[in-house]
Amino acid sequence: MGQTSRRGSGERDRLLDLENSLLIRKLRRQPTERTPVWFMRQAGRYLPGYQRIRKGMNFLDLCKDPDLAAEVTVEPLEVLNVDAVIIFSDILVPLEAMGLGVEFGDRGPCMSDPLSSRADIDALRVPDPVAETGFVMDVIRTVHRHVNGRVPVLGFAGAPWTLTCYALEGSPSRTFAAAQRMLYESPADVHVLMEKIADTVTEYLKAQIAAGANAVQLFDSWGGMLSHQAFDEFSLHYCRRILEGLDGCGVPRILFIRGAGSHLEKIARMVDEVGVEAVGLDEMIPPEQAIRVFGDRCALQGNLPPQALFAPQEDLLQRVRNLQEAFKDHPGHVFNLGHGILPPTPVPNVQAVVREIRGE
Question: Which residues are catalytic?
């Protein structure tokens, strides 16, 4: 499905040069002069440029405007001097392409008509990623023109369990009770839904890579809420399916499952079997535990608590130094947060973290 756009020689050379960028080398556990740094949700509500562009504009309309979305994507490079940009989009974009109505209000994303039956699931399609979500690929290409080879451009997608939570619940939730209930009442139906989502996300990420994404991250934000056995069956299984589908794609794959601290050994086995290049760590996982479990089999990304960015700067920078010290002997540490930057985060504090890591 989908199609690969032709690239001119200049664009091919620029993307090839990014193979030698700090972040990509570190994700491949190659020697680097320092630790690379970027932040989940680094393009968003805490930045003045985003606030100016977003004012009076529908969130999804912003995601679908390649020029404006690219401007938001690149702002952290200009303001923070990070080592990568991650495209401004939303994990629910593929669900809309599958046929679900997606809206964004004061409480965040919601489905205008969430799934409630097998018939609803059967009505969903596995969309062509270029035909249905081509604006995301346009954002990637536009961002590349803006950054002009300075840093890698990262793509991303939500994992099947997280997208299933939204598709069945209809809105953000602390428990996602409707999704959890259907998981036990009608597990076969949930598997049908998740297979469709997994196929959709695999093709979606392939299209991002074809458009020029230099690495991709798969987010399972709600995987950690699942019970021990359900985690294997409904989170890890489908993450594996997507990552295997991207095998040979030529770019590093980052897997981030929030709340998965008790499942690290299972994730490590999958890393070995699938060859996943990097694993993101949330703030609940002690560095020593992650290093003990994963060793140097993959890069490790994380894991400063997002809330730490509110601390007085000297306290904050000491936390940064402590984290750097904890991972100093690991060949693949990428500095990041344990989850996304929070909306009220002070920009000077984020800038101070980057300067500390860059040794400035």
Answer: 41, 45, 54, 90, 166
